[in-house]
Specification:
single chain, 449 residues, mainly alpha, three-stranded antiparallel sheet, two-stranded antiparallel ribbon, 17 helices
Length: 449
Amino acid sequence: MIKTLVNAWKVPEIRKKILFTAFIILIFRIGSVIPVPFLDIVDEIDIGKGNTILTYLSLMTGSAFTYGTIFAMSITPYINSSIIMQLLAVAIPALERLQKEGEEGRKKIASITRYVTVLLAILQSLAYYFFLRTNNYLMVGADGAAFTGFAAVFQAFVIVAVLTAGTAIIMWLGEQITIDGIGNGISIILFAGIVSRFPTLIKQLFQYLSTGRLVYRILVPTVMVLFVLMVAYIVFMDNSERRLPIQYAKRVVGRKMYGGQSTHMPIKVNMSGVLPIIFASSILSLPATVQMFISADKYEGTFWESFFDAFQSDSWWYAGMYFILIIFFAYFYSTIQYNPIEMANNLRKNNGAIPGIRPGKPTSEYIFRVISRLVLIGVLMLAVVALFPLIWSLICDAAIPPLTEDGTDGGMSITLGGTSVIIMCGVALETVRQLESQMMMRHYKGFLD
């Protein structure tokens, strides 16, 4: 990977693209520290311990969420919008036809996705505003009382408008990277936000060591080793694939013979990527999002208190539901993306066949069985990465006794979730692949050797 980056830097055209991408990332990071008007956040927002929805948003936004900056919503509304459009394209025939219309159809879908992104950004910004108001992070008047009447409405309007505009700007910046930079712009911005959290995580580990407790002297090095092993595990999972052998029949056209080649059809083990985790996280975050609108004293001692507690990430119920939803969405996504009947028909049209399997229905049934097994293997591998931080936090909270009576030091919390690590590794690998392909297109023979 490092050698590929060094070689890419030597190519003037690619070097300009890399510098342009770095400039966009710099703008993104500057916007991530500019505060929103009418907020009174001295240090940072208290998002609690553990892998909650607030921690997830903080990771995805590069801590912009916890500091109340103009990019506090980051690119998450666009990601949710893209997911919704993918699901609707299966259910709505008109959107499915647009997908098959080529470049013009994709442009129309991209335009609709932008409008849905703005709508989701407004809703998410409203939820964020109510969360800030409930926890007294809004600016108050000279008399120490909260704004009322027109002043309160104007305050809410400015906060929501600035946060929504921040999401729109990030969406535009991501598109500029896709057009003139390196890699997928949205993924690069998401990658930059996750990586920007690394100094905070390192500082957190040193704070555990500074307590002088023997348990942390053992656990901190263990966490660092586990992180390296997790990265290697994700790279292995991302590159793993099942290769179905394909044999093409020979045919004579004039005096030339065509076909007769032996090749393979690659099917990735983790064919759905990180999407099942994102889908599952989005579903399980809905109760927590609703909870942000409600004051805690309104549901204490009622059924809703137990309901909201079940969707907190520091419970075993949450881990179980998370695992089930990951499996469900992995099979659901593979069903949408891979059609065994269509794959078998394409092979038949091109005079191809899988050795030992008859063309037509037997081929489609064979491909279906292979995909079903691969999805199961892939989702189990994916679930290990997704659930490990949750289970680790639960074990640490139960195993490490509090240092003080008020429980201020009662466990080790890993704030870098499995979703973040998968996104980080996936974006890095895909960007390197794009660099290699761009260099190969310029006919630099032996450049990558």
